[in-house]
Amino acid sequence: MDEIERELCMSTRGPYYRDDISPYVRTSLRKLALPEPQWALDLACGTGRHSLSLASLGYSVTCADISADYLLALQRRAPRAFGTRLHPVQMDATKTLPFLDEAFGLVVISDFWQPGLLRCVSRVMSENGILIFHTYGGHGENWRALPTVGQLESESRLVGEALHYRERPVGPRHQRRVAVKAVLRRRKSQQSRRGHASGTPASTV
Question: What is the set of domains in the chain, with CATH numbers?
Answer without folding.
Answer: 3-177 (3.40.50.150)
